[in-house]
Amino acid sequence: MLDITGLNQYYGGSHILNHVNLSLAEGELVCLLGRNGVGKTTLMRAIMGMVNVRSGDIQFDGTQITRQATEQRARAGIGYVPQGREIFPLLTVEENLKLALAGRRDGLRKIPAQIYDLFPVLLEMKHRRGGDLSGGQQQQLAIGRALVLDPKILLLDEPTEGIQPNIVHEIGQVLRRLNRELGLGVLLVEQKLPFARQVADRFAIMERGHIQATGAMGDLNEELVQKYLTV
Ligand SMILES: Nc1ncnc2c1ncn2[C@@H]1O[C@H](COP(=O)(O)OP(=O)(O)OP(=O)(O)O)[C@@H](O)[C@H]1O
């Protein structure tokens, strides 16, 4: 579904993504792990076309997208929930969701009922401003907004950061449900290991901009954790 091969990216003279190879098969839920500053967010942004890459390929759904604009990638079916959520604080929940309708492939003009089914709190808070929501509710809004586009895969950058445990649990359940019931592929950047273990099928560990290890989630042993993840 998503195949990244030999991807190199630089910020000025700093080589950030270093020959990254990573793939997400159809319906797979993969967690990208790694310490702070290793390049996880940069990789997500590169997949979305928000940073220029120097070399390498990104293929999505059989198409080469490496040089496509962000809007084109979103329309092709890559949903993105950025770190820090980036919702519009002065717009209502409903308006935040409606903005994403512009990117629908099928021209739908109504927020799909499924979004409110997945996140009932968004229905309750429909007329409230985004900025009035709690961090956890804003995260649910950010995920809901990405889902309005009807993506084939979803990229999430640290969706549990700064969120209270009951909502973290709820988000985990929604991701599993989307993945299991609807076959949505998910690439998740995550720092919380118990959460990653709970939701992901497979892991990929990044260090200094390179994928150092991948495997089934059950194979993420203490040695790998100590070597690449413990701070
Ligand atoms: N816009 C930018 N300009 C220059 N350097 C940047 C920029 N954004 C990130 N970097 C640098 O690139 C490196 C990778 O950052 P990135 O945010 O991708 O890492 P990360 O693994 O997502 O970290 P975190 O877990 O802290 O979010 C870091 O050294 C960071 O300082």
From TrEMBL:
Organism ancestry: Bacteria, Pseudomonadati, Pseudomonadota, Gammaproteobacteria, Chromatiales
Annotated family: Belongs to the ABC transporter superfamily.
Domain of life assignment: Bacteria
Record's signal peptide: none
Protein name: Urea ABC transporter ATP-binding subunit UrtE
Any one Gene Ontology molecular-function term assigned to this protein's record: branched-chain amino acid transmembrane transporter activity
UniProt keyword annotation of Nucleotide-binding present: yes
Annotated keywords: Amino-acid transport, ATP-binding, Nucleotide-binding, Transport
UniProt entry tagged with the keyword Secreted: no
A Pfam family per the record: ABC_tran
PANTHER family linked: HIGH-AFFINITY BRANCHED-CHAIN AMINO ACID TRANSPORT ATP-BINDING PROTEIN, HIGH-AFFINITY BRANCHED-CHAIN AMINO ACID TRANSPORT ATP-BINDING PROTEIN LIVF
Organism: Halothiobacillus diazotrophicus
Gene Ontology BP annotations: L-amino acid transport
SUPFAM superfamilies per UniProt: P-loop containing nucleoside triphosphate hydrolases (SSF52540)
Ranges where the ABC transporter domain occurs: 2-231
